[in-house]
Amino acid sequence: MLKTVLTLSLLSLGAFALAGCSSDETKPTNIVCESTYALCTTAKCTPIEEGQGTVFCDCDVKTGYSVGGTPCHEPIDSPEGKQVVSRYFPVKSYASCNNDRPWANCYDRPCIVDKDDPTKAVCSCNIVTKESPYVIVTDTYSEQTCTTGLYSSARVKDMLGLTESLKSEEHLKPFDLKLVNE
Q1: 82-112 in b/e burial notation, b at 16+ Cβ within 10 A?
Q2: What span, in angstroms and rounded, lies between the C-alpha atoms of 165 and 124?
Q3: CA 118, CA 70: separation in Å to the nearest integer?
Q4: How many Cβ atoms from other residues are within 10 Å of residue 134's Cβ?
Q5: Is 48 exposed, middle or buried (0-12, 13-18, 19+ CB in 10 A)?
């Protein structure tokens, strides 16, 4: 299975990406640039192995402006396929979930583009627990929205802060956000 083959290479790529971060960085940097990237805002995720702090998330491959904590770069060729990074693109609507349900943080995480479908990528994302309220990107809300499945997400305050910072950005303007479970 593709996800099993990708485990070691994605984890290695993630360690490589983290090696470039200095320990004195306390404030995340939001870099807007144009590239091919993985968009995981609505990605469903599955555990790699029981007890691990990492999950695989099925993300979409996009080309255009996005925001991330690292500069954009062209996809990297590897034996497993093309490697890209998961980045953020503004959302239009979301649910705010306030519970202890785990979610996946895919921001700036390594991904491998599917060789058979270049519009899809598998990303290695970190499991986050007890960090709420968190975002589920959706345009509708039901009782199951905040209680079912494992999804790529972010803390509401981080998404709102990033949305605010993008208001002054020339190439990547945010949408007016709609909270669907007010």
Answers
A1: bbbbbbbbbbeebbbbeeebbbbbbbbbbbb
A2: 27
A3: 23
A4: 25
A5: buried
Q: Are 63 and 119 in contact (CB under 8 A)?
A: no
Supply the pLDDT for residue 4.
Answer: 38
Question: What strands lie across the sheet with 178-179, from one edge to the other?
Answer: 134-137, 93-97, 178-179
CA–CA separation, 182 vs 165, rounded Å?
A: 23
Distance CA 44, CA 115 (A): 19
Question: For position 48, what pLDDT does the model report?
Answer: 81
Length of the chain in residues, anyone? 182
The letter for the amino acid at 133 is P
Share above pLDDT 70 across residues of the chain, in percent, rounded to a whole number: 84
Find where tokens 């770069």 sit. 73
Environment class of 164 (CB within 10 Å of its CB; exposed 0-12, middle 13-18, buried 19+): exposed
**What is the reported pTM?**
0.83
- How many other CB atoms are found less than 10 A from the CB of residue 81? 22
The two beta strands, 134-137 and 103-105, are unpaired
Provide the pLDDT confidence category of residue 49 given band limits of 50, 70 and 90. Answer: confident
Q: Are strands 76-78 and 134-137 parallel, antiparallel or unpaired?
A: unpaired
